[in-house]
Structures are given as C-alpha cells and as structure tokens.
Design brief:
Distance between the termini: 39 Å
Pfam family, one: Ubiq_cyt_C_chap
Number of helices: 9
Family: Belongs to the CBP3 family.
Helix content: 55-70%
GO cellular component, one term: mitochondrion
Strand content: under 5%
GO biological process, one term: mitochondrial respiratory chain complex III assembly
Protein name: Ubiquinol-cytochrome c chaperone/UPF0174
C-alpha cells in the first residue's frame, strides 16, 4: 500500500474497482435512500447565493466554497454519522456484540467500509473524498487509542489497527463478490472474533446487506455532503 502524509496509508481497495451488484436486503424493511435533508440553519450547507454579499465574498476568498473545503466538511460529517451509528449501545445489544475496544473498532471499521464501498462506484471522482473521510476515521482511531490509556508503543497499536481495517475491508469485498454465506462468515470472524456459531452473525449480515443496498441508491451528493443516516435501534 502507498503511504500518505504522516506515514498513513492512502485508502485504496485491494480488490478491483468493479461495481458490485446490489444485494437484496434481508432486513424487514426494503432498502431506501439514506439521504437526510439539508438543515437550512446550518451555514455549512447553505449555498453561497443565499448569504449576504460581504459574507459570501469573505468565504469565497477564504476558499470556503472550494471543492476541497466542501469535501473536508462533508468527510467530517460523514464520519461523525459513522461514529454515532457505531457507538450506539442498542446496535450491539440487538446483534449480540460484546462491548470491548477491539469489537467497537471492528464495528466502526464495518461502517467505514460500507461508505468506502459506496464511494468506490464514483471511480476517480470519489478518491479524494474517500481519502479525506478515511483520514477523519484514522484521526479518531488515534484519539480513541489515547483515551484508552495507551502511552507505550502507540505507533505499533495504530499500525495494527489499520492492518485490521484493511484485512476486514478486503474480506468484506471478497464476501460480496462470492455471495452465499461468505459475508456472515466474514462478520463472524471480524466482529465476533469467531466466538460461538456463525449463525449469531446472521442478524448483522442482514443489517449490512440492507445498508449496502440502501447506500447504492443514495445520491452521491448526499454521501459527499455527509447527509446520510444509518438505522438506529433505540
């Protein structure tokens, strides 16, 4: 893998950039767009034309409306939603997932992968945004390692956690490609650490397939703006 700034790996799938077939949802509800409405009270989502002249000029000159700036804001919002969904106690309870640092990280990796899998469909246009989103994820991983009290060999911790993400992402890519029960098996290995029978991952598999299918029909603009919402369980 190519290294990015601060010795961080650039996000790039180890599998081909082929478009995956939409997987039928096995959840109780049909897949639907995850797009959320723009909040007109949020200045970050307001078009430049709706602002007063002096403010529009100042923000434009400052690069606020540049594509890069919009991608940074969108990437941070998208990761904030991933973090919120991945931190919900009810999600873990509904799927029988024990709350540990490793399993919390595995669930976060799963949601990050779902978003990156969707962005891959955009080809070259999605690469820059994917990197920004991935960097937000890695910044949060670093904060969580620090909050967990790790002070020794922090760099090795971060490298191991990043390898975990890449390994999980590749296994999910391959599972979607192969079909059948491969996704449940991958989830059982990665999220449940192989504990118990693979059937315990079936509910989580339905959750993932539902969101992969829903993200597939979510407008690209909503994903890049970070205006999506994962299912909540409380």
């Amino acid at each position: 893998m190519e290294l990015a700034v601060r010795t961080r790996r650039r996000w790039a799938s180890s599998t081909s950039t082929q478009r995956y077939r939409s997987t039928p949802s096995a959840s109780s509800s049909k897949p639907g767009s995850l797009e959320t409405a723009r909040e007109v009270s949020d200045e970050e989502t307001l078009p430049a034309a709706s602002m007063s002249g002096w403010r529009r000029l100042a923000l434009t000159l400052g690069g606020y409306f540049s594509e890069e700036s919009r991608h940074v804001r969108g990437g941070e919002r998208l990761y904030a939603e991933v973090k919120a969904a991945s931190s919900e106690d009810a999600l873990y309870a509904a799927h029988g997932i024990e709350r540990t640092f490793a399993r919390d990280h595995a669930v976060t990796c799963l949601h990050v992968w779902m978003c990156l899998q969707r962005l891959r469909r955009e080809g070259e246009d999605g690469k820059d945004f994917s990197q920004i989103f991935y960097d937000a994820f890695q910044d949060d991983v670093e904060r969580r390692v620090h909050d967990a009290g790790v002070r020794v060999r922090v760099r090795k911790w971060l490298q191991d956690l990043e390898r975990t993400f890449y390994g999980n992402a590749v296994s999910y890519d391959k599972a979607l490609e192969l079909g059948g029960s491969e996704l449940a098996r991958a989830l059982h290995r990665n999220v449940y650490d192989g504990d118990g029978d693979v059937d315990k991952a079936k509910a989580l598999e339905r959750y993932v397939r539902h969101h992969v299918a829903s993200l597939a029909i979510t407008p690209t603009s909503a994903v890049i703006d970070g205006r999506i919402r994962f299912q909540r369980f409380n």
